[in-house]
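On clarity, I found the account of how folds are encoded harder to follow than it need be. Since the whole study asks how a given chain folds, the encoding of that fold should be made plain. For the editor and my fellow referees, an illustration may be useful. An entry of this sort, consisting of the sequence and the corresponding backbone structure tokens, reads as follows:

:::
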Amino acid sequence: MTSDVTIITSVESLRQLATLRLSTVVNCLSSALETLAKVSGDLPTARGKADGQYSGSKSQTEISLEVHQSQAYLLHLLDSCLTATWRQRAESSTPQPSEIPRFWQDPPPLDESSARTLLNILVTYLRFASNETAQHTGTASPAPSRDGRGQSSALLSWGHDGLHHSASSVLPTSFLQSHIQSRQGRGSISREDQHFDCSNVSNVVDSVSQTTRYLGQIIFYLSSSNWNFVFSRIRSRLAYLTTTIEDMPDLIELRLLQWSNLNRVRLCQLMQETSNVFLHIKRPSQIAFASVMHSAIWNWIDTNPEEFDILVGSDRRIDGNPEALFDMLYSMTDFSSSNAKRTAVFYPLLAMILVICPDLFKKVVVGEPGGKSSGLSKKYSFMESLKKGLSGSKGFEPSVACYVVFIKAAMRISPRHSLSALRSLLPEALHDLKAGPLDV
């Protein structure tokens, strides 16, 4: 179908129209996605709803492959139009000289109505994709209810295990590379970003995988153009999680963070909000949120490497009270804990927080007279626990995950930061890993 000349011409015309009247194109494709949701009988009417809950009128197993393919194709078209518009803006600007790659500048914001409608639809389809994935992995009920309880077990499972699937950026490498601002002002365009390959959606699992990919890329755009709107949605969900009495609340909106385009200012906002509310969130939800926070920080490093490099060179910590979040997390975690899943998620996040606090990290790695009694005791204890963890069955995997965070982060900074804590720690980290038992 996608090789038909008429379709190719129509899609190209749609992309060109998007560069002139983006809101019109977004509204039309959003309407088409909403109509498809109604036709499928499984998804709710997203427009105008704040939460996009399920109607539960049809089980997911009753949805045909053709409907899945249509959903993926419409999301592909929307993603393609947004990217075309963003690329045009990037090509019209002159990139500043830099040793480190820069991403395109943020696109112009969508009008509030278009942004709200689009975000509601994205959350709706994100919830659908999560439930469909859970359906095929046997972690959730096939028929979700209106209040979202049907997907709770799947989302909690995602919160527990998501870290293993998103140890760094959850956006495809080809997508990230295509958004780099080169000296000629043009990003590379991969074939897969221009065309929709039906062979990649020949079954439901592959179709949902493609759908999730396009959802993530559209969320990346919307968080770039309308960050305040997206962040407001995340804050509302966090506020709900601090007051709800549900044992298994709906967590799907937290996944918006996995694909958000964070710069330093946005990361500071997120860190401050997290530091304020994390302690008041129920434990199961904390695990899911910690997982997406880990992904969000990696996304910032991957999409804004220059900002990360400047932060490391400044010997200052990121704003937003990250040290308070570190202390909270560490107080709630230890290798002897009966909740191994919490430790598996919290420990790598603790490592990430140290990475974005170069001043604290340097004091702990290099050593500071009286440092253990100067508010850094939990940071010292954490680093010491990593070495001990390598020799025990309960602490081995979390400790290795943390060392991997340090090594990967060290690889992201420029050679001029050879005296940074990350680079200074490398020899010791590699030695500890080699000395660790192989049969744990």
Observations:
- The longest helix spans residues 65-91.
- The first strand starts at residue 102 and ends at 103.
- The beta strands are 102-103, 180-181.
